[in-house]
Structure formats: structure tokens, C-alpha cells
Amino acid sequence: MDKTAVSASIISELRAIVGDANVLTSAEDRICYAYDGQRVECVPDAVVRPADAEQISRILILANSESFPVVPRGAGTGLSGGSVASSGGVVLDLTRMNRIIELDPANLHMIVEPGVITTAIADKAEAIGLLYPPDPGSMSVSTIGGNVAENAGGLRAGKYGVTRNYLMQIQAVAPTGEAFQSGARTRKCVAGYDLVSLMCGSEGTLGVITEISLRLVHMPKYRKSMMATFPDAAVAGQAIADIIAAGLVPSTLEIIDNVTLRVIEDYAHLGLPIDAGALVLVEFDGLVEAVVVEEAGLAIRSLTDSGAATVQQADDAAERDRIWQARRVALAALSRARPTSILEDVTVPLPKLAEMIAKVQQIGAKNSVMIGTFGHAGDGNLHPTILADERDEDEMKRVEVAVEELIAAALEFDGTISGEHGIGFSKAPFLTQEVGDGSIEVMKRIKRALDPNGILNPGKFV
């Protein structure tokens, strides 16, 4: 079915569904929805802000009837173009659906709508001694629906897992307008196809999520944080692999290279050791103090044996916060260092982490581009961030080559082109290199079966 522009008559029908105030058509409003956390692609014809699943169903039925595309969107903090329209149509802004419906401490679960900010979920759980572990870097502004659509990770993923590991049940609306649910509010459920996992990471191409039941865990009572300096980022990468190989499971294990370290210090003035080749940030947590203390001691020994120049343990909460603020502001600091920042998301098996870090440095030097690397190194996830100026055509040609070489290196090391940011349209050209033609065809068949008219989030990885 060929897609059409959203006509005045369609706008009138959309207003009848959600109300005049919740259909945005001015150029000023629409341009705000042409961006995600990293780029601009296409200005939508309209933005529609539904309040519930019934309104979403009516919108999608209308879209199939009138043949216009619909792009689900939360806060728009994604980094691969998943929430940005690629062919006009309607952006479906889900941020009005922002209720925390139920918090059940006895069953360790919380029921929320897709527009709830991730930090609000974490804070609500923490107030009664529980933890929602996924903590993407954008958690203070990102919505849980977007986290599910992208299967967001975060700093704690190495120990606690990613968004998928905390989904108990979802309710959603199919591209053709039918409401459905999958999963249960129980610890186990094998009733029918696992549509929860199918929807998680589908990047808004297979349905619109309307309600989410999340699994919670008990808040750890004790934490030990430390910061180690290394003369070189590749050496730091090997030290990280050594910690995991020693049988230790930090709740957080991060790396910051010298380029990133310097721009963080220039941005936040945290008193960081800017002469270090790299920082490794480590935290252990748990319910038993003696276990956490022992793990921290073993980690200090491991870091020292692996070549750390210094290892500094946080003495109090203020010092811990300073250590982790360095990691939290990394992307913001890099983004202001030069006019254009391109954040990559490659992930490799831990035994190959040091090689990948060295390769990133080689790619930057070879192409004369500035790359700052940080990331969730405890699970092999690196964020090489290329700093450039898109007005410089020569430099951007070198940047394109560097991106292709970063992708090729990750695959050469048996890794993946995206650990947590998704494919969207920005990485779609590389997906076949990783999964092969057969997998792409299977994905297309699933897409055609659920979305026969290609209405929902077209132009993305399938």
C-alpha cells in the first residue's frame, strides 16, 4: 500500500478521537518531533497524543484505512532513529499515558503506562526498599515504553540484566488495531507465544505498547565503589576482562578513556585524574555486608595485578556519587566538545574487549578523527563516540569510513553492531552483515504478518 500525506480530513478525524488540543500540526510543534537523541530525519505531518489504548486502536484502524504511517514515540531520547518518522505521517506521542497504575511489594511488581519516566519507576520502587535495575544513561528523561521498544540496558546490566529481564506482562495494540496481551503477573508463564519478548526490542514496528508489568527486586543494602587509573585504555579493557574471569560479578563495571576523561573534567570539574590513559569504575552491591566487602577487596587485588596505577575506594556516599557522576555525564560532555557527535554502540565478547579498544584507537588515528570511548565494559558494550563537524565535508567522509570500520571490527571479534541502542534507520544498512539474509527474511515475514499494510514505523530495520 502506498503511503499518503495526512490530509485535512484525516486531521479532523484524529481530532475527533483525541481532542483538538492533542493533535499538533504547527511547523514549530512538528519540528520538535523530527529529532531523537542524535539526529533529524523527517518532519511528521502531525503529532497525535492519545490517552489510552482505545484511542490508539482507533488511530491505527484509521491509518490502515487511509494509508498513512504511524510512528510510536516516547521522550525521543533514542539514538538510532527508531522514534523518528522516515516518511511523514503521524507521530504517536505516548507521554500522556504516564500513570503508575499499581505497585505490589508482596509480588515484587509494578504496573505502569508507557509514558512513565524511568527514574519515576526507580524512585517509586526505592521508596519502599525495592529496585528496578535497568538504568539507561537517559533514565531521568526516557520513558519506559521506549526502554521496552529498544530493550534498553544501562550501567547495571552486567549483573542485573536489561529491560527484557524485568518484563512480566505487556498489553499492546497491534498495527491493525487489535488489543492483545502476553505474559502474566507471575514468576513463570508459558501460556502461548512469548509476545512479550517479541515486542521487546521491536523498535515500535510490531505494535504500540499500552501497559507494562515490571519485575522488581529487593534493594541491596550495601555498596562498595572504586575508581582505578590505567596507563592505557586497552590495558584497562584487559583488567575488566580479568575481573569477570576471576568470578566476580560487579553491579557496575565501566570504562572511560583519556579523550572522554578530559572532556568530562572540562565539563563537570570533578577533580578527575586527566593524565590517566583510562579510568575503570567498579561497584559491588548486595544484601550481606561481609560479601560485598570481600568482593571489593578481591577486585582491588585484581585491578592492581592487571596493571592499575592507582585504585581509589569511595569512603562515603558523596565520594561514590562523584565517581559515578563522571560516567553519567560522559555523553553530555562529549556532545559539547565539537559541533557533531556520533555515538556508536558496539559490543564484543569480554575476552576480546582489549583488542576492540585498541582497534578503536587505531581506527581513529588511521582516519584522523577524534574518538572518545566509554561504556558498560563489564558486559563488553563500548560507546566509541566520534567527534567532528558535519559542516566539514572532508572530515565527514573520514567519519563515514571510521563508522564502517568500527562495525566491521565488532563483527570480526564475534560481536554485535548494537548492544542496547537498537537499529532504527541509522544501523539498518549494517544489519545483514551481522544476521544474514535468512534472518532478515524471517523478520520481514513477521512484520508482514502483523502489519500487512506497513503502517507502523515504516522505513526502519525491516
Describe what this molecule looks like in 3D:
This protein has 462 residues and is an alpha+beta fold. The protein has 3 domains: 8-93, Uridine Diphospho-n-acetylenolpyruvylglucosamine Reductase, domain 2 (2-Layer Sandwich); 100-218, Uridine Diphospho-n-acetylenolpyruvylglucosamine Reductase, domain 3 (2-Layer Sandwich); 222-412, FAD-linked oxidases, C-terminal domain (Vanillyl-alcohol Oxidase, Chain A, domain 3), CATH 3.40.462. Helices cover 38% and strands 19% of the residues. It has helices at 8-18, 27-32, 53-66, 118-126, 144-150, 157-160, 195-199, 233-245, 258-268, 289-305, 317-328, 330-337, 353-366, 393-412, 428-450, and strands at 23-24, 46-48, 70-73, 90-93, 100-104, 109-112, 130-131, 167-173, 179-183, 208-215, 217-218, 222-230, 252-257, 278-286, 310-313, 340-343, 370-375, 383-388. The strands form 4 sheets. A 7-stranded antiparallel sheet has the order 15-12-14-13-17-18-16, sandwiched between helices. Helix 8 runs antiparallel to helix 13 (353-366), helix 9 (258-268) crosses helix 12 (330-337) and helix 13 (353-366) runs antiparallel to helix 14 (393-412). The chain starts with 7 loop residues before the first helix and ends in a 12-residue tail after the last helix.
